[in-house]
Amino acid sequence: MYDRVTHLKQQFAADDARRAALDYLLQAWEEAILDGIDGDCVANAALFAAFKELVATYGEEPVARFAERLPERVRNGEFTVKGTHQ
Fold first, then answer.
1. Axis crossing angle, helix 2-34 with helix 39-58, rounded to the nearest 10
2. Domain range for residue 6?
3. 3-state secondary structure of 46
4. Number of domains in the chain
5. Same domain, yes or no: 45 and 71
6. In terms of Cα–Cα distance, which of 80, 78, 51 is closest to 64?
7. pLDDT (tens digit, 9 = 90+) per residue, 10-47?
8. Fewer CB atoms near the end CB (10 Å): N or C, the chain?
């Protein structure tokens, strides 16, 4: 039981950290847009920074495998905000 509780606490802490990180990124994104930087430029810079960090943390091959799954995830709507279609 203790191991399960510990695991749940760690999961909630990780979820809180992810939410906080996303809040920081969204605030920076909004500031960039308000400063006149095109959203497409911000998105490309964010992707570069994200992949740079992932490669530094996990290595090239694991990140490449992760990236290989991205087209399917995009097509399945994982990154689509309701009401947004192109």
1. 140
2. 1-37
3. helix
4. 2
5. yes
6. 51
7. 777 778 888 899 999 999 999 999 999 999 999 999 99
8. C
